[in-house]
Structure formats: C-alpha cells, structure tokens
Amino acid sequence: MTNHRVTSQDVAERAGVSRTTVSLVLNNVPGVKISPQTRRRVLDAASELNYVPEAAAQALASRRARIIGLILIRNPHQIATDAFLTQILDGLIETIRPSGMRLLIDIVEPQHQKETYLQLIQAKHIDGIILSGPRYDDDALSSLLEVNFPAVLLGQIPDSDFAFVDVDNRAAANSAVAHLINLGHSRIACITNAPLSYTAALDRLTGYKQALTENGITFDSELIRYGDFVIESGYRQMHSLLASNVTMSAVFIGSDTLAYGAVAAIRERGLRIPQDIAVVGFDDIPFSRYSDPPLTTVRLPAGDLARRSAEILSQLLAGDEPESKQVILETQLVVRDSCGASRSNRRMKLQ
Amino acid sequence: MTNHRVTSQDVAERAGVSRTTVSLVLNNVPGVKISPQTRRRVLDAASELNYVPEAAAQALASRRARIIGLILIRNPHQIATDAFLTQILDGLIETIRPSGMRLLIDIVEPQHQKETYLQLIQAKHIDGIILSGPRYDDDALSSLLEVNFPAVLLGQIPDSDFAFVDVDNRAAANSAVAHLINLGHSRIACITNAPLSYTAALDRLTGYKQALTENGITFDSELIRYGDFVIESGYRQMHSLLASNVTMSAVFIGSDTLAYGAVAAIRERGLRIPQDIAVVGFDDIPFSRYSDPPLTTVRLPAGDLARRSAEILSQLLAGDEPESKQVILETQLVVRDSCGASRSNRRMKLQ
DNA sequence: TTGTAAGCGTTATCAC
DNA sequence: GTGATAACGCTTACAA
C-alpha cells in the first residue's frame, strides 16, 4: 500500500477506465448505461484498493455535504437532563442512516440564534436542518424560509409555511387537564416545561387554560409556575407552589422530567401522591412506566416524530414536494396511578 | 445581492487585495504580518458581503474537516434511555464550540464496527473521534491506532496506547459494594449495566467480585444478571432475580437507569427499599437525587469526562502531545437512602 | 507585506 | 457507453 491516499484516479487506472466512469459506477448514476463487465471491474478495483471517496471533495463538487444538522435551541446545560432528546436522536440516526447521511448536532443559545445556525447553512456544512424547540422570537427562522433552505421543525411556529412534525400540544394538554377535572379536581396548578417563548410550552399552557374554561373553572395565575427544561426547575417550582398559600389538589406539569422534580418536592413536604396531590406529566419518557407511582402523562410519539421529520427532510432534499409537509402526530393520554382514579372510573374498570 | 455565492474572490476584489490575503487575514494565520489597514479592509469587506467560507472547500484544501465524531457503539434503541449520554453531549459541545469544531454523532452497531466508523475516517469526514463505550472485541479499534488517527476513548481498553478518559470502574464498584457489606449485607446481587464485552460493564462486575472476596464473602453466580443499557433490562433482570430462589438483601446495579427498572420490579413484588432490599446504582444521573428513595450511587463526573476528552482530542489534532493522554477521573460514592444505614452508621449520625 | 499559481479529489458537461 | 476537461472554492508554497 502506497503512502498517498487512494483516489478515484487509482481506481480508474486499476480498472482501466476513466475517473468519470468510476464516479458513474460508484454513484450508481441513474440513466447512464455502463456495461456489466466495466461495472464489475470498477467495483472490484475499488474494493481491492479499499477506496473510500473523500467527503470534502464530493461535497465541493456535488454541492451536497450529505450531512443534516440537528439544532437545539437551548441554553448551556439545558440538555443534560433531557430524556426526550435521546429518543429523538435514536429515531433520527436510524432513519437517515440508510440514505448515507450523517447527523451533525449543535446547540444554539437563544441569544445567538441568528449568527449561529445560519452560519452552518451558509458554510454549506449541512444540506438540511431539523430544528428542535422552535421559539416565537427566533428571527433567524424566517431567513431560512426566505432562502428556501430545506428545514423541518420538530415543533411548530403557528401560521408559517415551515415544514414541521409536531403534536397538538394544546389539545393534549387540554385532555390531560380535563382528566384531572373529571377526577374531581378544580384547583389544578401548572408548571410549564419551558419559558413561554418556546412554542410547545405556551401551547401546553394554553391547553391547560382551555380545559379550565371549558369546565367552568376560573383561571388563577397564582397556580402557574415556569420551568426551564431541567429537573431542578420542576423541583424548585413545585416548592414555590407549595410554599405559597394557594390551595391545590393537583398539578399538571409540561414535561415528565420536570414532573419528577415536582414529585420529589411534594414528598419532601410530606404529601402523598395521588392522595394529597395528583400529578400529570407530559412526554411519557421511558421511565414513567416504572416510577412510583407510575406517572399519568401524555404520550408523545418520540420515535415517530424523529422518523417523520427525517423523512420529510429527505424528500425536501431530493427536491420532491412532500405530500404533507406539516404533520401532526397523535398523542395519547396514558392513565397510570399518579392521579388516582375517580370513583366512576374505578367502577368502570371493574366491569 | 447577486445570486451567486459570495466567495473569497469577491471579498478580495472589494478589499482590493488577493484571495491569499483574504485567507491569511480571515484565518489569522500565525507568523504572517499583515498591515493593520489591509487587515481592516479585508475584515470590513467580508462582513459587508456577509462572507462565510465554504466548509467543503476549506476542508478539501486544508485537509481538515473541522468536525469531530462522537461514536457510540450500541445496538438500535439502546441510546433511547441513556441519561448519561445527554450529559456527555452537553459537555462535548460546550468544549469544542470555542474552537469552531462541529460535532457529528453516530451510532455504530457492534456487529458493524469495522466497516462503519473506519469509513467516516477514511472519507475524512471527521478529523478526530471520541469513542464511547469501547468493547473488548472491537477490532476496528486497533486499526485506528495503526493509522495513528486522533482518537480518544470515553472508557478504556486495558494495556493499549489509546488516549482515554475514564474512571476507575473497578475501584468505584468495589467501594459501592463494600459500603453494602459494611452495612451488614452479605447476599448481594448484581445486575450489570451492559454485556461484558463492554469494558465498563466487566470492570464494574470485577469490582463487585473484589469487594466480596476482600470481605470473605463467597461469590455466587446465581446472584448475577446481565443488563443491556435500557431501563427495561433492569426491570426484567431484577424480576428474574426475585423469581429465582436465591436469597439476597441487596443489589448492586451497574447503572442508575437500570436501577430504576429494578426498583420498579422490587416494588411490584411488594418489597420495600431499603428495608427488604437495599439498592446501589452507578452513574449518579441527575434524577437520582430526586428519586424515592434517593439513590445511593457512584457519581461519575460526566461533564468532566466530556470536557477532558474533548480537550485531549484538541491537543492531538493540534499535533501537540498531551501531557497526559490517559486520564482517570475521580468518582465518589454518594450515599443516599436507598440502602438505609447500618445501626452503627445511624449511631454515628446521631452524635 | 502581498500576490501568483498550483493543487485538493470529486462531479458534471460535453463530445466522441 | 466512455472519456477529456472544466469547474467547485479554498489553502499554501513560493515568488516578488
């Protein structure tokens, strides 16, 4: 083996063809007819030489980097306890791998939105982008639309043309809170999963309010607290709620991760779940089946969210207009034991 | 704004210099003296034109992709519940960002080790690699050493020249189990965090055995079960343990994530923690402070592991030989309530 | 201190 | 069907 890099030139020489032919064969360019024997020779030569095309050269010449970017809009350390993220990563990598794409991951802080991920794009580092946790105040987002850059939101910005994959956070939160109301609760606190600039956080809060309104319960801002992604914030905000003088018999929390912080705070106060305080979460992270008590929560189809967004992005990259570029996936209220059961529900189960 | 891409040529023309000068200025090439006014002109022109160099062209010409790869050796879905991973990601991104590097993440299945990540390297897609969860049977690993590719293990392979950042899993497991023994336990079960081909899993099991031996307790293979990363496996293996006829009063589990599966299984059997069964985990994921009972576990300095590995890799990339390329970070046994306290300990607390 | 020119390893456009 | 040849946009000796 010589010392220099094996190039397509080497393959071409060994196969007795030109570099063009090597490229055509290796990339399986459609609409080009290569004789079977030539094709074989090229393929053999390539594998004998253990040839791997250089990514940068391919990218430069073809104008495609074969990399997609997963961008998370977060502050430092806010992903450290994000149980949802690993599920997304898992689904994303699995989906894009067959197409030979690679996944680049980056966190951009809300303050630096504009500079940061537009650079990735302008540098043509990535061919397409999946943006998790879009915010209302993200002005870089509209630039994406303007330049018509292939992008899919994991989440959504209302009334925009962006491709997105999301759930109906509002309806899901509504049904979760309605469940609590049906159980007889009327003093229901709420801890958001994140600041309201994150669309998902606002939508879940809105769903909470809707459920109250629809059931004739007056909204009380004293019952609201704002979390920010990490479990600590659930813990702190629950303590804040408990330390205030408001009465409540249940709490709806915008993410399971935060819910477990809240659960700890509730226990520290010597209160029982669900007898003293019922709790409902959101996400249905894998742990929630196993917690004590098992957590009633809204199941987000994490794997599907990841897969669908990757699929849509692939279509965008291929230049196909996807049949549906704005998709809402189903959620499901998973009733477990953290909010007990109303007498009527219990009776139904026994039937 | 014209339709074509802004190139360094455009910047050069606007600034009235050559592309060379533009490159020298923008890359801050050391040891080259550029007059301040020229430098200013170039900088101004670049920002006026909103110039962003094209990554592929840079990579091709400079032979550096400015991307580092984080490779996880796992089977599909085994990262979905990995609470440790998000902490690593967080630390990694934070550390490499200032250097302008990007992070590419990929999962490679143990069966496909060889093909997969060597390709990333041969394609020069990445300049360096951080490999999480090395296995004893990874034959691609030695190829890395042979070609002298910049690589850092998150974990370690005994007796190899690889740069690595790790903890002393054996000693940490030993101290955790010794703690249990000091509490009076002698029938201590063990559930590994992963198959023993993963070095960390074997080391933790070895530490467990050492602790037994050092304290005159006979090793009983009936007390051992093998997990595989996900919470479900902790749950299943604990049930398996409980369903067998072995007696035990404590269980040591190779990862907190699995420990919570085990905790659920223990409760399903109507047993109490720690009164009936004491449990000790490993990792100290953020949740473990908040669980009920709070989990006694070994704290892994996740952020530091990530940071140090990124730092070492940076030095390797810069061509500097790092002062220490094999580093062992401190762990700490965090005693909480999941294994109760021995009578003597309790007395000490009261003093 | 700055410019000229030669790559870097592909893909893509045309001829043949 | 296959092969020259010209991009692609940048870095980097080397020269001036």
What does this structure look like?
2 copies of one chain form a homodimer. Chain A has 351 residues and is an alpha/beta fold. Chain A folds into 3 domains: 8-51, lambda repressor-like DNA-binding domains (434 Repressor (Amino-terminal Domain)), CATH 1.10.260.40; 65-167 and 302-329, Response regulator (Rossmann fold, 3-Layer(aba) Sandwich); 169-301 and 332-349, 3-Layer(aba) Sandwich (Rossmann fold). In chain A, 43% of the residues lie in helices and 15% in strands. Chain A is built from 13 helices and 12 strands. Chain A has helices at 8-15, 19-26, 36-49, 55-62, 83-96, 113-122, 140-146, 169-182, 199-214, 231-243, 256-268, 302-318, 343-350; strands at residues 67-73, 102-108, 128-132, 151-154, 163-167, 188-192, 224-226, 250-253, 278-280, 297-299, 326-329, 332-334. In chain A, the strands form 3 sheets. In chain A, strands 2-1-3-4-5-11 form a 6-stranded parallel sheet, sandwiched between helices. In chain A, helix 7 (140-146) links the parallel strand 3 (128-132) and strand 4. In chain A, helix 5 (83-96) crosses helix 12 (302-318), helix 6 (113-122) runs parallel beside helix 7 (140-146) and helix 8 runs parallel beside helix 9 (199-214). The model of chain A is unreliable at 342-351 (pLDDT under 50). At the A-B interface, helix 4, helix 5, strand 2, helix 6 and helix 10 of A face helix 4, helix 5, strand 2, helix 6 and helix 10 of B. Chain A binds a DNA duplex (16 and 16 nucleotides) through residues 5, 7-9, 17-21, 23-24, 27, 29, 32-35, 38, 53-54, 56-63.
